[in-house]
Each structure stands twice: as C-alpha cells, then as structure tokens.
Amino acid sequence: MSFSYKCVLMVGATSGIGLGMAEKLIREGSKVIAVGRRQERVDDFVRKHGNKADGCAYDIKDNQNLNNFVHTVTTKHPDIDCVYLNAGIQGVYDFSKPRQVDLAAFHEEMSVNFTSFVNLTTSFLPFLQSKSTPTSIVFTGSNLAIVPAWNMPAYSASKAALNCFTLCLREQLANAGSKTKIFEVSPPPVQTELHDYMGIEKGRTLGMPLAEFCDKAYEGLASGKDQVIIGSIGPQEKFMDIVDKRRSTFEFLAKMMRSH
C-alpha cells in the first residue's frame, strides 16, 4: 500500500526524523513542502529533490507570524493535503536539585513540543477542512507519552499532552463528519540530532537507525492506521496492552459523554 496523501507539508523537515520521513515520502511518490528554521537547510533540501520538493523557512516558535506563514504556504501550494508536524527539543532536568533547573528551557521545551503543534493545527484546519477531498494531519509523538522517562520530565509531559490532544482532536473531527484524518506516529529512541545534548557520538548512536524507523513509520501510515507505534518501552505485549486499554477506555468515555 502507499500513503494516500500526495502533497505533504513537513514541519521540521531539515533534520532528524522530519528529514528522514520527508525523503521517504518523496521516494514513495509524494511531493514535500519542507519547513525548517534554517533557510540554508531548506534550500539544500529543495536543491537535492528538485521538482519533487519546495520549501519555506519558518520557526514554529514565531506565533506572531503564524497566520501569515499559513496563508503564504497554502496560497502557493493549494494542493497540500497533509500537514505533518514533526519538530521538537529534548533536555534533562533534575528537580531534586531545584536551584539548578533551567525553568526557561523547561517551558520552552513544553511550548515547542506541544503548544506550537496546537497553534499550527488550529491555523491549518480551516484550509484542510475547506477541501472537497480527504486531508490529514500527522503528529510525531513518542512512546514516552505513555511511559515517561524519569530524567526527561518536560519531553515526556509534552508528548503526553500531545497524545491527549491528538485523541481529543481525532474524536471531535470524526464526530463532526470531517474528512480530515488524524494520525499519530510514536517513535522509540531514534538515531538523530535530538539527542545531541548527550554528546554527538553518544547521542546519535542511541536507538533505532533512522532509515529503519522511517520504513516502519511509512508502512504504518500507508496501512491507514491512525496510531502508528514503533517499538515499545519494556516488553512489547505489556506496552501495547497499556496503549490498547487506554485507547478503548478513552473511546468509552467519549461515547458516554456524547450520550449526555
């Protein structure tokens, strides 16, 4: 099977998982509009992929220019049918030593990993919902949304918040009869720049090879699954049992609340 959406706006497309997935989508036949903070990396991506790609430099922390960014990119590319939100930062915080905690960095991590995704979703939804053909939003989450890492409270909490938002958004759109489908891809640790704070040699060898992850993520998305979980924290069976029971309990609560 192939991914149903053929013009993908990839936020965070110039490094890490975003770059890997952008190039995987191009190889599989989609056009990718690459979005990244650094203009030179966006330009490199477009030069490499020619007419299969275009790009736009934008920092997702820039809320002041968000509406202008969305208007510009959707006007230039009215055929966008998928917005793929993939960007993030990760740090270590030890609250047993509160005087050493960088609260500004903690809150920036929460904002980048969660709040910016909510803002982008809210701004792109009117465009996606206005189209007569199916559209989608894909979120890159994390397995740490389900089982947090003790030394990464900001990252774990931001991904847990994103997972909750994704569940609620999916339910709301489906209940409204929207043609916009919501996907969430949950990676294990993947060998990318995300872990550079650990030191490049150590960080970029942590986890699953990027190419392997991208193949598995694409396979899951192409299958039509709305929640693509790759790997697990601890035994696979136990981890997936937590995921499945949580999802079914959420759906039970949603059904009960709609009936009232």
Automatic annotation (TrEMBL):
Signal peptide: none
Superkingdom of the organism of origin: Eukaryota
InterPro entries to which the protein is assigned, alphabetical: NAD(P)-bd_dom_sf (IPR036291), Sc_DH/Rdtase_CS (IPR020904), SDR_fam (IPR002347)
Alphabetical UniProt keywords: NADP, Oxidoreductase
One annotated GO molecular function: oxidoreductase activity
UniProt family annotation: Belongs to the short-chain dehydrogenases/reductases (SDR) family.
Name of this chain's protein: Oxidoreductase
Lineage, top ranks: Eukaryota, Fungi, Dikarya, Ascomycota, Pezizomycotina
